[in-house]
Amino acid sequence: MTAAPASLPTRPGAGSGSTLLLLLRLRTFVALILVFGFFAFAAPNFLSAANMVIMSKHVALNAFLAIGMTFVIITGGIDLSVGSIVGLCGMVAGWLVLNGLDLGQAWTIQFNMVEICLIVIAIGVGVGVVNGLLITQLNVAPFIATLGTLYVARGAALLSSDGKTFPNLNGNPDYGSDTFRVLGAGSWLGIPVSIWLLVVVALAAAYVARRTPLGRHIYAVGGNERGAALSGVKVNRVKMAVYMFSGFCAALVGLIIASQLQAAHPATGETFELNAIAAAVLGGTSMSGGRGRIGGTIVGAFVIGILSDGLVMMGVSSFWQTVIKGLVIIAAVVVDQAQSRIQARVVLQQQAALGR
């Protein structure tokens, strides 16, 4: 009598659970293909070269904010102030281009383009420092801390011009501020400058996330803050770093928008934080922290950008656009939770198989 062969242990990664998990991990690429394909047929002139350039600029703006938001969310936090930082930094840039810095008694300091950019970025990073201090030193919940700075930054933007627009930001060639328009309207090798900046920021962020101790610490804080602290990670420093980087990204967006429009308005950046959160979560960043990839976030930004521009080209009401974006965020979070549950189940199945 021949004995039946013993059943072999399930190979790790095999099974329907692993297949579904793989599909969930690739959900952003699937969504990108579906959204792009739909608007290619449904929206007039969607595939035109001019529209591709405009859409790439819009995607870049969302991607900058989403990259900064990704690091914040990985640590288990949230930054609701990025949209207001965009508006504030745009207004500061507009003020400096038009008026310089008035010291009184007929003394005015004028700045060139590089100096303006450095000042504006310093302000964005400074707001990030305030967010970080509120969260790390005063133990304010990230949602509340950044909600507060959202209102403060927006109010400061409104106060800077009494709610008016700074128009005609052409700059002055005598002071070297006339090149300010290059950020938003310039191009190199036929590609907008904002896209080149996005490539640099994205590559740098991906390198930090995957190849540096800071990147490992960011994931460690989000995965298990207490465990990270016990293992020697400077948790407060890590949190400060991610909120400062988020402020940097927002300041960069404020500069680019003011340069593109050649004008600065205090309401610029409203609801931008929602697009950034949606892109990050859609790209696989877990709202519970500890998981996320810069590459996925970039793809998520493309999905949100194409969705927004496609809806506009189809003449969909802005009210319905807001509804659809909200549904996208909800769907992304639901799918993320499903991925976490399936991943945990697959791990348990693999451990059980290896234990047999």
From TrEMBL:
Intracellular or extracellular location(s): Cell membrane
Chain ranges passing through the membrane: 28-47, 59-78, 84-101, 113-134, 180-209, 240-258, 294-312
Membrane topology: Multi-pass membrane protein
UniProt keyword annotations, A-Z: Cell inner membrane, Cell membrane, Membrane, Transmembrane, Transmembrane helix, Transport
Pfam entry (one): BPD_transp_2
Main location: membrane
Identification of the protein by name: ABC transporter permease
